[in-house]
Specification:
five-stranded antiparallel sheet, 21 strands, alpha+beta
Length: about 350
């Protein structure tokens, strides 16, 4: 399977203009709320109509504004799972799944497909219950069964775990990963949760204000996010604007410190992940005051204010395992920012 998307949809004060391709893989669209992630899925599914562009799935054109092609959602063979499952509340689990079965199936063939889908998702014993009688995880499995019984050519998941608590979310992630492996075709996952994306996706496309900022393997995107927005979305908490001094030196304006690094073209900001800061002397070493110590369940975050920085400088966050902080604990200490750990950003 292969998906090619190049569309534009205009709204008042906002334009979605996005282009990407995906093969037999899980591609995650990662971005903040309102950036156009869900709208992209709705356009692919045919629920919304783009103002222009083209959508092709496995060689079949689903939408082409120039050729006036716009297949109905029923003809697109696209499976879209919404945030809140969208099960029909007055129907049993079996009736909900039956609604998803392909229209070409009739009688016993249709019922066989429904029974197989129920069994595959562990819902056979729950088939006569209403959605309100199911747990959140069971509702999610019912929604997936309803989608996959239609044998879609692509599976699209719109914030599939947003309504679940953390324990159930982890369990459902495991189940959905198994579904994805069995599905074996193109999967699009929409999320604003970077950890979820990293666990679920092969490739990541970062969206910001209606367009793609970066796309690549999850390792590439997290290691080299490229822009300030992408860096923040991948979980980096320490980001500062810079003022270049020369080709190897710059002032980190927010942190109030000078940095030594081989400056890349168009770099106007830098970032460093909280776990990448190192104790003691080294590249870009600074004496810092500890302004706050934050206890996390399994780690400690220490907020640092470089001694040379002005009083209004933004503190730098440093996260480490609790035993490491117990060994280092002090009101003032020296840390360094390794050159290879500094993310050079633009935008």
């Amino acid at each position: 399977m292969a998906l090619s998307v190049d569309i534009e949809k205009r709204f008042k004060g906002f334009t979605l203009h996005i282009a990407f391709e995906a093969g037999d893989e899980t591609l995650a669209l990662l971005g903040a709320s309102g950036c156009g992630k869900s709208m992209t899925l709705r356009c692919i599914a045919g629920v919304e109509k783009p103002d222009g562009g083209r959508i092709v799935l496995d060689g079949e054109t689903l939408f082409d504004s120039e050729k006036h092609i716009d297949l109905s959602p029923q003809k697109r063979r696209v499976g879209l799972m919404f945030q809140h499952n969208a099960l029909f509340p007055q129907m049993t689990v079996r009736q909900n799944v039956r609604c998803g079965a392909r229209r070409g199936l009739k009688g016993k063939e249709r019922e066989r497909a429904v029974s197989e889908a129920l069994a595959a998702f562990g819902l056979s014993e729950l088939q006569n219950r209403l959605p309100a009688q199911l747990s959140g995880g069971q509702q999610q499995r019912a929604a997936l069964a309803r989608i996959l019984v239609s044998q879609p050519h692509i599976l699209m998941l719109d914030e599939p775990f947003s309504s679940l608590d953390s324990h159930l979310r982890f369990r459902m992630e495991q189940e959905v990963r198994q579904v994805i492996r069995h599905f074996g075709k193109t999967v699009l996952l929409v999320s604003h949760n970077r950890d979820e994306v990293y666990r679920m996706a092969n490739r990541v496309a970062i969206m910001n204000s209606g367009h793609l900022e970066s796309i690549g393997t999850r390792a590439e995107v997290f290691a080299h996010p490229g822009t300030r927005a992408s860096c923040a979305l991948t979980g980096c908490k320490n980001i500062s604007a810079i003022r270049p001094v020369d080709g190897t030196h710059a002032d980190a304006l927010d942190w109030g410190i000078p940095l030594t690094l081989p400056l890349q073209p168009e770099t106007d900001a830098v970032g460093i992940r909280m776990h990448s800061i190192e104790p003691g002397e080294g590249e870009n070493a600074f004496r810092c005051k500890v302004t706050e110590v934050i206890e996390n369940p399994f780690s400690t975050t220490v907020m640092l204010h470089p001694v040379m920085a002005p009083p209004d400088a933004v503190p730098i966050g440093w996260e480490m395992e609790k035993p490491a902080w117990e060994r280092l604990k002090a009101g003032e200490l020296t840390v360094h920012l390794p050159i290879n750990s500094i993310l050079q950003l633009k935008g």
